[in-house]
Amino acid sequence: MSANRPARYLSETDLKRYVPVHVVWEITLACDLKCLHCGSRAGHRRPNELNTQECLEVIDALAALGTREITLIGGEAYLRKDWTRLIQAIHDHGIYCAIQTGGRNLTPAKMQAAVEAGLNGVGVSLDGLAPLHDAVRNVPGSFDKAVDTLRRAEQAGLAVSVNTQIGAATLPDLPELMERIIELGASHWQIQLTVAMGNAVDHPELLLQPYQLLEVMPLLARLYREGQERGLLMNIGNNIGYYGPYEHMWRGFGDERVHWSGCAAGQTVLALEADGTVKGCPSLATVGFSGGNVRDMNLHDIWHYSEGMHFGRLRSVDDLWGYCRTCYYNDVCRGGCTWTSHSLLGKPGNNPYCHYRALDLQKKGLRERIVKLEDAAKASFAVGRFDLITERIETGEAIGSVNDSGQVIKLAWVNQGQKSPEEGRLPTQLALCRSCRQYIHAHETTCPHCSADVASAEADYLADRARQQAIMDRLTNLLGMPRSQLM
Q1: pLDDT tens for residues 387-429?
Q2: Is there a contact between 197 and 285 (Cβ–Cβ < 8 Å)?
Q3: Residue 453 forms beta bridges with which residues?
Q4: Which of 187, 246, 376, 423 is the most exposed place for a label (fewest CB within 10 A)?
């Protein structure tokens, strides 16, 4: 792997061989915050968390599988007494190690010990400016503690990022929050939507309505561009998207060939709970998505042979339902983020948190709204039940809902019971319409989104680029300096 490429950069070999490149590991469920949106309902340790030796064996197994990055989470990772020993073991294998934290009690001594053990990066959660952040994290002063942790991490030479969950009340805070993040020296800002799981089901007022994406996405696009110009790179989480006029910006960091290509859980992503339960993604529900436990089966066999890990490898259009089933992007997108749609509706494959979908419905005078129907259990990663209502924008008249559709919603896969394919599939490569900047299938001659002639739009785009190149070349000759100095 090139030293210039991030650990999570995926090669064809990674995809074909199902290498668990990035692992997210909840090493304890103990937590010193009381977040209203916490999907795992963190607070107390799990009854039977892995001991130190078991954790070291997991690290050895991950190294053997080819893992290149491990993110330690909780609860709060630093509340586990042996957390720096685990960091040291990860470092000794040459694996990039980071933690995600609320930062309330990551003291200077704890941070220094982690740095000395080989910690590479720290991601600190900031879910808004101080009033909103403290309200959501449910502990007064938690914003100031998080900011202090961020500042000290940057001074310690760690790679520093900020994570922000977007809920119903977050949008007004985002521009000023970005200013604070830049001032604090963070290089990356990860954004994701708050999901209807665990504590968030108890507080549905925190959840964004699907139709609010029409406000969220243009704002994020503006902040992305502004941040990029000032050295802050916005990383879009897996439940923000999909397609629409900004997709070409989000995921490729300037490389338009990169776009959303489906849930990576169980393909290049692996997750562990503190008791040794293995899943394809850290956010997925334990029930229905567990591939087994490292105490009962070795990690290599869970990853390669356990049916619970394979839904992403086997998923097809036939697993989709509702709007997603007939969507233009169905076989590329495969329903977006599994966690988001399953938590909301009890089954993946129909995800209303989609920008393309919201725009398409808006053209038809429609929008979608969620309404809570049932509470979630008190267990970690428990889900409740929500209805998804389609209504007319102008009058608010409901014209349909998932709850009244008569469809049986159950967690089942069309290909359930089948073995994992021996070789992973490479993502479909979409083309980009140069007229409306939206992705299209490579065979299209007329854009299905804006009706432009695809070839003519591409020719105009290339001609415009050639004109810009010619202008830059003339300026270079006139000024007598290398072109790189003009950029």
Answers
A1: 999 999 999 999 999 887 655 556 666 666 778 888 888 889 9
A2: yes
A3: 446
A4: 423
For 230-283, the DSSP string reads TT-EEEEPTTS--SGGGHHHHTTTT-TT-------BTTTEEEE-TTSEEESSTT
Rg (CA), the chain: 23
DSSP string, 427-480: PP--EE-TTT--EE-TT-SB-TTT--BHHHHHHHHHHHHHHHHHHHHHHHHHHT
**Sheet of 366-374: strands edge to edge?**
366-374, 385-392, 398-401
Helix (H, G, I), strand (E, B) or coil at 203: coil
For residue 297, the Cα-to-chain-centroid distance in whole angstroms is: 28
Q: Which of 293, 297, 363, 353 is nearest to 322 (CA)?
A: 353
- Residue indicated by tokens 């970690």: 380
Residues 152 and 309: their CA atoms lie apart, in Å, by 38
Integer Cα distance of 270 and 302 in angstroms: 11
Whole-model pTM: value is: 0.92
DSSP 344: H
53-77 confidence digits (pLDDT tens): 999 999 999 999 999 999 999 999 9
- The 10s digit of each residue's pLDDT in 22-32 is 999 999 999 99
User: What is the DSSP secondary-structure string of 138-164?
Assistant: TSTTHHHHHHHHHHHHHHTT-EEEEEE
Cite the beta strand spans of 10-91 per DSSP E: 22-26, 69-73
How far apart, in whole angstroms, are the C-alpha atoms of residue 487 and residue 483?
7
